[in-house]
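Q: Convert this sequence to structure tokens.
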Amino acid sequence: MNNLLELNHVSKRFGGLVALKEVSMHIPEQAIVGLIGPNGAGKTTLFNIITGLYRPDQGELLLRHQPLPVGMPHKIAQHGIARTFQNIRLFNNLTVLENILVGRHMRSQASVLGAILNTKRTRLEEKNIREKALFFLNYVGLTHRAHDYAKVLSYGDQRRLEIARALATEPQLLALDEPAAGMNIKERNDLALLIQQIQQDGTAVLVIEHDVKWIMSLCQHITVLNFGEVIAAGDPHAVQNHPKVIEAYLGKGQHHAA
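A:
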């Protein structure tokens, strides 16, 4: 399988703290990849570098073998990497549909002049944007909530809406920051099914998650960080039984992964 995204020898320092040290990893096309590690391992820092919030001190990011512009979230999004956040960031006083329209407008080609003059081309594009937004609402099962305010949705539905808004940008890679945090068992299971459907429909997914058992059942490939370094990478079985992973999560002397 070809790699969609490659990170080569990525390092990041905050003052005297080395957050990432020579991190290399890859995300294959149309794969679900997990990024795990104990608290403080560097997961969020790496995630923020991939999505453009941080600029690495050294190393390179390649998207389909082409250099990715680092430290520029809008450029990263234009190149086809969309993300959600650990703390849900919706426009609470907009409707569910309006939230997705915001995401979809990133793909708009309309000019300012066209919008002012309300040209036929602009009207057609707005129609297409709305149709796409409704498609993604249906995709995540929220069509019946289209005209409700985002703030009145349940926690699980807010997560789904955030994913739908990210999908509306039609990304090549969807990066999910602890998407199952705070969910009950049913919501976690439903979320796993949605992520698997996204992958089957052609979008690669990167997931940070503290629930190791959930990640192991969801992902085809997992990278493990500890103290800013990659300590293991591979399929779930290999990672789960890797001595360094067992030690990182359970301490020395343990013989099985949690």
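Residues 1-80+171-258 form a domain with the Rossmann fold fold (CATH 3.40.50.300).
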